[in-house]
Structure formats: C-alpha cells, structure tokens
Amino acid sequence: MTSPGRPVDRPEAAAQAPQPDGAGRPDPAPQPETQPPAPNLSTSRLARFGVGLVVFGFFVFVIGVFPDLIRLSLTPGIGLLQITSLLLGVTVMTLGAYIYAYATRHRAQPRRLREDIGLRLMATGLVVAYATGYADVLGIGSHYGTERPLLGLLQASGIALGIFITVAGIVLYARR
Predict the structure, then answer these.
(1) Which residues contact 106 (CB under 8 A, 6 or more apart)?
(2) pLDDT tens digit sequence for 94-106
C-alpha cells in the first residue's frame, strides 16, 4: 500500500487506488504538434480511373474506325462489328469523361441545373449515336434489307451529331 503523502510510482498501485475523473489529476502535458493527416486519395484515384477509361475508349474507337491497324479488317466498308466497336468506344469515353468530371467537382455542394442538363445531354447524344448507327439493323436505315448493314452517309452524320451532343453535355457538366 502507499502512504497518502507519497506519489504512486508503480502501475499496480495506481490501479489499486482509483480516483474519480478530474479529481486530483494534473492537467495533461501539451501535446507536440502533429502533422495533418494525409489527404484522401480516393478522389484522385477516381479521376485517374476516369482518364484511363477515356484512353481505353479512344483505343476501342480507333480500332472500330481503322481495323486495319491491327489487321482485323474482314470485310470491305464499315460493317456491323465496326459500328459496334466504334459506338462502344464512344460510350466508354463518355463514361470516363463523366467519372473524371464527377471526381474533380465539389461533391459537397448540391448539383446545379446545368450539371443535370449536361448529364441528360450526354445520355441523349449516346442514344442518337446508337439509333443512327444501328439504323439498318433496326429497320429504319437506307440499307435495310440488304445482305449486310453498311454505314452510309446519313448514318455517319447521325453518329457525328450524337457525338457532338454528347460532347456538349460533357462540357456543360464539367464546367465550373
């Protein structure tokens, strides 16, 4: 046991003599300044993932437009498989651009009307591009009923219009 006048040096003795909180304890020594916590990297990782998707989508798009680059041109002209890979590349690029813009904007603030319009324009542009790209398959194109669907001038301009609408949506969504 300890005497009332002597300080407690041993941990066993301190555990035997409990004191009420705040009663008789000296103020704790001031803590040395610590470094602030490391920044959260999840935002930058998400942004990097978005950029990676844009790059991957661009390669898929280029392969769809120029399949001869990897010696994959099986048919003359632009056929259904090429149209599919072209549209898939545009879709992946749009998704990557959306993820990047989402990761770099201030998410704590409420969404603005401009951002909602941009998001809807991105989706509308993709729908326009898909509808005009697959017009022959859907039965509304100029080459409907032929042996195989081809990408005609009207379909190419419809895909270009859809991509333009998508880019306008991305610009509206990403603008600060």
Answers:
(1) none
(2) 999 999 988 887 7
